[in-house]
Amino acid sequence: MKRIIYILPLLFASLIVKAQQTENATDFEKFLANKRSDRTERYEKWGPTREGDRGFIVRAGYVIGGTAPLPIPKEIRKINEFKPLGGVSIGVDGYKYFNTRWGLTGGLRFFYQGMHTGADVKNYNMAITMGEDVVEGRFTGTDITDTRMAGLTIPVMATYRVGARWNLNLGIYFSSWFYKDFEGSVFNGYLREGDPTGQKITISSENPAIYDFSENLNDWSYGVEFGVDFRATKHLNVFGLLDWGVRDVFQDDFETVAFKMFPIYATIGLAYYY
Amino acid sequence: MKKIFSGLLLFSCVMFGSCIQNEPMNSECDIELAKITNENKEALVYSTTECQKEIASSDSVIVFRLPADFNNDNLLKEVSLEFAITKGATIFPQNGSIQDFSERKRVTYTVTSEDKQWSRNYYVQFIPVEPIETTLCFENFELEESNNPKYYNWFEVLDDGFVNYQWASGNPGYKISKSSAEISEYPTIPVTPAEFATVSGNAVKLETRETGAFGAMVNMRIAAGNLFIGTFDVSNALKDAMKATRFGKPFNKKPVRFEGYYQFVPGNRFQDKKGKEVVGRVDEPDLYSVFYKNTDENGNAVILKGDDILTHPNIVALARLRNHETVRHGLGEWHYFSIPYDYLNDMDKNTLDTYGYNLTVVFTSSIEGATFCGAPGSTLYVDEVKVIWE
């Protein structure tokens, strides 16, 4: 996180330098020509660190985010708590520039991510399954969910240099999960067995009912990835990226959770340009 | 660093928080409370505690008990009832509307949920209070009313033809904890002469069962077979099981002897609440009957539950097969018992005549089953039980 504090003054300082340049310019044409040559110079300076407009980047970052229904269904009345379960992402990207500004990036990353969330729900469809025993119905009360997943992500992105030191990346990604869990508990409320007219089963906080939907999660996901890179030094890069999943994390035939949930996780970290 | 982190958290909370939609309308449609609002309402009930009734979520039949000597049916031609229903729900006929309950007419009230997607019918009736059946032969039982019926309910048919559901068991609780169990695997089941050498007609079999992973999750590893006069409030079964068993029904006779037949065999492994074996402990059944005052000094209704059925100060008399010496083990032969009621408190004749006392009869296959201690497999058969009264 300290690195973020570090880049903010840098950004600010570069703006002041720009402003001063404008004030001192007496000949507008001259100024533009200078600026163009400056820019070319700067783009070259902060360009790929190797010959041939290509190279690779090693990234390591902290993952924060959640697996969330969007839009938040009306059954969720209040979010009491939300906490990312400390995630990491480590990977290698290869890139190739086609011209000064445009390029293509592809990579392979390992990630571990998760979240803990607590919410007040109303008339929330759920089932508690234990082996062959199931209690299913509508729950009104407090729900706590923990979900974690680990796997590999392959992103393919178009890269655009908006400035000499700034890159924007936009593309798609594919993730495969080799570890996943989704579990939680409900309490402080009651379950109407079957439907809202079914018998009421009070569930207290002393005796919460626990559920585990891990086996109903899909094995893979895909979505849109958006990233920003800032070249802090010649080799060191500060980056942020967002993976926005567009596939429901639950299998199609799983109907207990009545709404779709999507993994939306951001990574903030440092990268090394080789 | 922490500041930025909490800032990000705050941002995500705001982002998610701002997406919370308007609260959906209620889907529930229960009658939670029913009360008589007529001016002469006291004339319509055997006890003032009967003017207002809390309705359990699983009940759809509401019976107000008239005085035993009620003979002015005209009073029932214009009765106004008021119901507390789920917030936003609507009821038809309307709250407070005048209805005709004479000649034991059953009036149907329909409650529709606020979102109009769900509705429930309730059947309301006025019937004179009458003593519960005390010759208990376990002949009448039926499968529960449900889309997926799993367990039996026992009932008695009174002299006037009224079907009295005076029996209750923990079976509804077992259904929640072990949905995969077959009908024959429930803790309390009927046995017919074809299946078992009964004393006469059908008998009842109570067996302590394991509740599986669910039960272990909430520290309720076993379910003792039980059958008792009273009601079982399944909504409390997971929260506070001791409060789920509500013992007793109004009775207007002085009980003197509790008698009947049983067979019992203990399960092999007695376990405590945590499921740990208690070495050397042999399980026992429990068979008893309690007679108690059903109001407190302020006139409020008193119902004894699992945690105070043997200790409450309102208890007037108790008859119980007490200990290892009196309870005989072994299957194959029926054992007869006949125990006098032990009177611990004075009984008031006026209170008795106005159904101011409740009587319960309780059978369980594990004596500590209420606290989830016992031996799975402990089996108790009961047949031809009788409460003799003066």
Question: What do these coordinates show?
Answer:
The complex is a heterodimer of chains A (274) and B (390). By secondary structure, chain A is mainly β. Chain A has a single domain (46-273), classed as Porin (Beta Barrel), CATH 2.40.160. Chain A has two helices and eleven strands; from the N terminus they run ααβββββββββββ. Helix content of chain B is 10%, strand content 36%. Chain B has helices at residues 2-17, 171-177, 212-217, 241-244, 349-353; strands at 31-36, 52-54, 61-66, 79-85, 90-92, 98-99, 107-112, 119-128, 135-136, 141-143, 152-154, 156-157, 163-164, 167-168, 188-191, 203-207, 209-210, 222-223, 226-232, 245-247, 249-251, 255-265, 286-293, 304-305, 315-320, 330-340, 342-343, 357-364, 379-389. At the A-B interface, helix 1, strand 1, strand 2, strand 4 and strand 5 of A face helix 1, helix 2 and helix 3 of B.
What is the strand and helix layout of this fold?
The complex is a heterodimer of chains A (274) and B (390).
Chain A: H1 2-24, H2 28-45, E1 54-69, E2 76-84, E3 87-97, E4 102-130, E5 133-161, E6 166-193, E7 200-203, E8 209-212, E9 220-231, E10 236-245, E11 261-273
Antiparallel strand pairs in A: 1-3, 1-11, 2-4, 3-4, 4-5, 5-6, 6-7, 6-8, 6-9, 9-10, 10-11
Chain B: H1 2-17, E1 31-36, E2 52-54, E3 61-66, E4 79-85, E5 90-92, E6 98-99, E7 107-112, E8 119-128, E9 135-136, E10 141-143, E11 152-154, E12 156-157, E13 163-164, E14 167-168, H2 171-177, E15 188-191, E16 203-207, E17 209-210, H3 212-217, E18 222-223, E19 226-232, H4 241-244, E20 245-247, E21 249-251, E22 255-265, E23 286-293, E24 304-305, E25 315-320, E26 330-340, E27 342-343, H5 349-353, E28 357-364, E29 379-389
Parallel strand pairs in B: 3-8
Antiparallel strand pairs in B: 1-2, 1-4, 4-6, 5-7, 7-8, 9-29, 10-11, 12-13, 14-19, 15-16, 16-29, 17-18, 19-20, 19-28, 20-24, 21-28, 22-26, 22-29, 23-25, 23-28, 25-27
